[in-house]
Amino acid sequence: MQIIKNAFWKTTPVKIQTFAIIAVFAFITWYVPGLGTYTPLFIAYVMSYAILSMSWNFFSGKSGYISLASAAFYGLGMYITAIYGRVFDNVALALLMTMLLSAVVSFVVGFIIGVVTLRLRGIYFTIFTFGLTLFLNKFVHWYEGLFTRTKGRMVRPVDNMTIFYAMLIVLFITFIVILLMNKSRFGLSLKCIGQNEDSAQHIGVNTTITKVLAFAISAAPIGAVGALLATATGYIDADIAF
Fold first, then answer.
1. Domain ranges, residue 201
2. Percent helix, strand and coil across the chain, each rounded to 5?
C-alpha cells in the first residue's frame, strides 16, 4: 500500500499536488478555530514538528550529511524574538518582523557554517554541527552571566490563534518551497550528492555550493519556528532555546 501511495504521489503533476495541499490547508484554517482555545496551540506545536522534520529532511535526507544544528537555529529564532519582539507596538507586526529576521539570520548563519564545514565529509560535519549548538548554549550562558546579570529573558506573549495562523502560513510556505525545489534541477543535484558525491562531481554538479545552499535554506524555517514558539512560552533561557 505504501509503495502504491508513493508511486501515485510521485507521478502526480505538481499543479494537482499544489491544489490538494491548498485544499487541506483551507480546511484546517476553517475547522480548527472552532475547537476551543487550547487546541489551536496544540496543533501549532504539531505543525512546528512537521516544519522541523521537512527542513531537516530537505538537507540531510537528500544529501546524506547528518546535521545536528537544528537546535542552534531554533534557539537563534527564540532569542531574536525575545530581544526584538517589543520593537513594534503592534503585536502582529512585531511577530512578522521577528519571524522574517529569524529566518534571514538562520539562513545567513547556515550559509556561513556551510561554507566553512561542508567541505568536510562524514562524521566530521555532524560533530561540528553538534558542537555549534553546545557553543551557542554556553556562549549565551556566559554573556548573560557577565553582562546582563540575568538568566533568560521574558518574551512578549501572543494569543493562541495568532500563533496557529502564523505557524500554518510557515508550514504552507515551507511545504510548497521544498516541493518545488525537490522537483527542480537543484533538488536532483542534491539527491545525486546523497547517492554518490564523487559521481555527482564528475557529471558537473557543483557539490559544495549545492550543499551550502541546501543547508542554509533548511535553516530558515527552523529559525522562524523558534521565533514563533518563543511567544507561546513567555520566557526562555539558553537551555530552553538550544
1. 37-62+69-234
2. 80, 0, 15
